[in-house]
Each structure stands twice: as structure tokens, then as C-alpha cells.
Design goal:
Strand content: 15-25%
Helix content: 25-40%
Number of strands: 6
Shape: elongated
Strand order of the largest sheet: 4-3-2-1-5-6
CATH superfamily of the domain at 71-189: Ribonuclease P/MRP, subunit p29
Radius of gyration: 35 Å
CATH topology of the domain at 71-189: SH3 type barrels
CATH architecture of the domain at 71-189: Roll
Largest sheet: 6 strands, antiparallel
Length: 200
């Protein structure tokens, strides 16, 4: 019943447990005014700062030889499946390379496409020894292509002063290396001009 000693003892004990930060006098003051507001004191969660993973520097990558292709892996036949994947990738990118496709649209897609796996041929060069080199692009850097030839030789061909051709499903595209000195990741975001001076 209201006003009994048991009820008072229960309320006092309950309020002490619920409001551990308040003193007995404050609890009694609340009881006399008959205004009890119970608050939940939640512990503040400390946010753990995420550590950013630092990548390797260019010097460390060279020392670890991360991008070097071992001599026993420098075989043309190993990378033929990569070329087949690249052809499928280009067909999907250009919506099938249909005969009625507009050449400039295909050309604009190829300019921004990833060329790893493409078979290219050096058609023009200021250095005659580069002309005629044909093979699969294994690595593309800002200034050079690394190409594996049918003779299982790894060639490093500079982009500057060279013209490359690549053929897929009867469509032949020419790459002017002097205008192509970008990394593959940078090239995808670059806007190429449709007209301009073309030279070696």
C-alpha cells in the first residue's frame, strides 16, 4: 500500500541503483516534489582511429622486383589466353564491334581502354630497329610498352617517336605513342582531342 515503509525502502533502493551519481539528499528532494526522471547514463564509446595502410614506394617496388617478369615466364604461349580475354573485353566495351559501328566511336573507346593483352605492331619509328616488332603487351608504363614476341623475347619499346597498330575483328587502330605518354589509369580519365597535329 502507498505510504508503507516497504514501499519507501523499495523506491529509495531503486533510485540509488538507477541514479548512482546523485546523493541521498538530492534523491529525497526529488521524492518530496514527486518528480522522478530516470536517465540512462551510457558509456561513451571511444572511436578507434583507422590506420591508413601505406603502400610501397617506387624505390621499394624496384628493390622487391614486383613488376619484373621472370625469364622462365617470358613465353608467348603463356599469354595467349590473356589476349583472348582482352579481345572479349574490347568486344564488350565496343558493344560487339559490329560492321556498322562508327570508326571514330571505336577509336575513342580504344584510346581509353586497357591495353594489357593486346597484340600490337610497331609500324613507324624514328629508330628503324623497332619497326616490325609484334607481340602481346604485358606491361604498360607511362613512357614504354613491354611486349612479348612470338620468339619468346621480351622487348621494351618506348612510346615516344613510335606508331603502333592493333587489329581486332578486322578493325585496325593506330596509336601515336608521342600523344599516348600516360599511365593506363590516367588515360581512362583523359579527354583526347579528335583533331590535332600528328607526327612521330
Amino acid at each position: 500500500p502507498q505510504g508503507s515503509e516497504e514501499a519507501k525502502a523499495f523506491v529509495n533502493a531503486f533510485l540509488k541503483r538507477s541514479m548512482p551519481k546523485k546523493k541521498d539528499e538530492a534523491i529525497q528532494d526529488i521524492l518530496t516534489r514527486k518528480a522522478v526522471v530516470l536517465q540512462h547514463y551510457s558509456k561513451k564509446k571511444t572511436k578507434q582511429k583507422r590506420k591508413k595502410t601505406k603502400g610501397f614506394t617506387a624505390k621499394q617496388r624496384r628493390e622487391m622486383r614486383l613488376f619484373e617478369i621472370e625469364p622462365e615466364q617470358q613465353r608467348y604461349s603463356i599469354f595467349l589466353p590473356l589476349h583472348e580475354l582482352w579481345k572479349q573485353y574490347i568486344r564488350d566495351l565496343c558493344h560487339g564491334l559490329k560492321p556498322d559501328a562508327q570508326p571514330h566511336m571505336v577509336q575513342s573507346k580504344l584510346l581509353k581502354a586497357d591495353l594489357h593483352g593486346a597484340i600490337v605492331t610497331v609500324t613507324k619509328s624514328k629508330c628503324p630497329s623497332y619497326v616490325g616488332i609484334t607481340g602481346i603487351i604485358l606491361q604498360e608504363f607511362k613512357h614504354v610498352f613491354k611486349i612479348i614476341t612470338k620468339e619468346d623475347k621480351l622487348k621494351v619499346v618506348p612510346k615516344l617517336n613510335n606508331v603502333f597498330s592493333l587489329e581486332i575483328d578486322g578493325f585496325i587502330s593506330y596509336i601515336y605513342g608521342s600523344k599516348f605518354q600516360l599511365r593506363a589509369s590516367e588515360r581512362s580519365a583523359k579527354k583526347f582531342k579528335l583533331k590535332g597535329t600528328i607526327d612521330l
